[in-house]
Amino acid sequence: MERRRKSMDYLPEEQSNLRRGIDLQREYFKRANIEDNFEIMVKALENIKSEIKHKALARGKDKEVLRVIKIIKWYKDLPSRYARATPQGYKIVYPPDIEQRISKNLQVAYEILIELLGILGLI
After folding, report:
1. 51, 19 in Cβ contact below 8 A?
2. CB 21 within 8 A of CB 51
3. Which residues pair with 30 in a beta bridge?
4. Which residues pair with 85 in a beta bridge?
5. What does the H/E/C string look like for the chain?
6. Axis-axis angle for helices 98-120, 62-76 (nearest 10)
7. What confidence tens digit (pLDDT) does each residue in 12-33 have?
8. Which of 114, 41, 94 is CA-nearest to residue 71?
9. What distance in Å separates the CA atoms of residue 58 and residue 27, rounded to the nearest whole number?
10. What is the pLDDT of residues 59-96, one digit of tens each?
11. Domains of the chain by start residue, with CATH
12. How far is it, in rounded angstroms, from Cα 20 to Cα 14?
């Protein structure tokens, strides 16, 4: 009788944990999109981006990753961009269509990340 060594294969379990984490973040994004909760949408985008950034860069998808980073940075810079000086101090005054622009840009970033996930074989 021949004895075989049992070896642990950690990669498949790690991969499934990665997929589960990404799927969870996608669900957070979808739920927040329904509720118009932009903060949670941005956090979900950041989490997905951080998980796949290096793999996407290794595949030559740096333009897509940079576009997602720019959209996230654009969202975070909104308060400083629309701050106005008043006699009482600074006040943030957003244009009337800001919610539509935020939603559209975050949705574009999400679509780019979904495309990258497909290319990387994580969906």
Report:
1. no
2. yes
3. none
4. 90
5. CCCCCCCCCHHHHHHHHHHHHHHHHHHHHHHHHHHCCHHHHHHHHHHHHHHHHHHHHHCCCHHHHHHHHHHHHHHHCHHHHCEEEECCEEEECCCCCHHHHHHHHHHHHHHHHHHHHHHHCCC
6. 150
7. 545 568 888 899 999 999 999 9
8. 41
9. 26
10. 999 999 999 999 999 999 999 999 888 888 888 889 99
11. 11-120 (1.20.120)
12. 10
If you search the block for the tokens 């006699």, which residue do you land on?
87
% pLDDT > 70, the chain:
87
Q: What is the rounded distance in angstroms from the CA atom of residue 59 to the CA atom of residue 34?
A: 32
Let me know: does 104 contact 92? Beta carbons within 8 Å.
no
Rg over CA atoms, the chain:
20
